[in-house]
């Protein structure tokens, strides 16, 4: 078997096989804490620079009460702003993607902004008295582009730069030429699940269930699949295909039509590779293309799932066919995972639920939970505190942890 250039998952001889306590999956106060301490302070992928190739092209990104717009300026630079007019806070663009010709015009009162976010002028400017334009541009948001993918976060947080987090796999992205990816509009997806977001991530963060729950993936690469773990909340999962022809129709034909990629290093040839970014993002790279997906809570009991697919330049008809077949396999897998997430989340409300008892093959799930506990130590409590005490108790425990270190 081809050696992988990532460290093996190190599992302690004697480790706590419990997961998060069930109360953390249905607490409204816990959800509010996750919003402020986790999602707004950690990197979120928005898209790829190829999604906005021309001057004035933009991507919208809404999350937990915050709104962002990522736009390519007249100088070719990609920037991120809060999607709030500085006059009354109206959205300056509406939707998930679009184009502004020459300027951004607020649809409420007609304030006009340049494509770099600076204020060009207010409607009826004399009605405002002294209005210094340099102080009323769109408010910027911290943003980073890494090998073509656009990341932002609404508030400063504990994570280092995206480049630092993903440095261990940067050679892979360079080999793939990730910055050259092109969007596949017909394979974008967006939907919701009636579950807590952690139940979705619990399924995604371990491969123990692949053999039983994912016949397509098991048929494709289940014999070689491995979960790996790196630093800073970055994880890698990997599986080789092509050693057997495949039994299922999609798998059999995908293996048949997937072209060799001798330009890639050995560990990326005939391989599907998954890169996970804490707390809620996944990337999938195959010889035919790539996609990202993310699971974002909208409440303690509802999760929004979304993602975008990409292809390589110069795609042949055969490669396009193989990419479509890989999409079919992944589509079926996603549907299977959604059902597993629902079942798992249901159990958290049962009086009979006594917590997880994890296999060594689920250590990646435990690592994800440890990352959550590090940010929100109140999750270490087995019993649910009063809802109105969760935020203050978490603050107290965070201070104790800081003093201890």
From TrEMBL:
<keyword id="KW-0223">Dioxygenase</keyword>
<keyword id="KW-0560">Oxidoreductase</keyword>
<dbReference type="InterPro" id="IPR015879">
    <property type="entry name" value="Ring_hydroxy_dOase_asu_C_dom"/>
</dbReference>
<dbReference type="Pfam" id="PF00355">
    <property type="entry name" value="Rieske"/>
</dbReference>
<keyword id="KW-0411">Iron-sulfur</keyword>
<keyword id="KW-0001">2Fe-2S</keyword>
<protein>
    <submittedName>
        <fullName>Aromatic ring-hydroxylating dioxygenase subunit alpha</fullName>
    </submittedName>
</protein>
<dbReference type="Pfam" id="PF00848">
    <property type="entry name" value="Ring_hydroxyl_A"/>
</dbReference>
<dbReference type="GO" id="GO:0051213">
    <property type="term" value="F:dioxygenase activity"/>
</dbReference>
<keyword id="KW-0408">Iron</keyword>
<feature type="domain" description="Rieske">
    <location>
        <begin position="43"/>
        <end position="152"/>
    </location>
</feature>
<dbReference type="InterPro" id="IPR017941">
    <property type="entry name" value="Rieske_2Fe-2S"/>
</dbReference>
<dbReference type="InterPro" id="IPR036922">
    <property type="entry name" value="Rieske_2Fe-2S_sf"/>
</dbReference>
<dbReference type="InterPro" id="IPR001663">
    <property type="entry name" value="Rng_hydr_dOase-A"/>
</dbReference>
<dbReference type="GO" id="GO:0005506">
    <property type="term" value="F:iron ion binding"/>
</dbReference>
<keyword id="KW-0479">Metal-binding</keyword>
<dbReference type="GO" id="GO:0051537">
    <property type="term" value="F:2 iron, 2 sulfur cluster binding"/>
</dbReference>
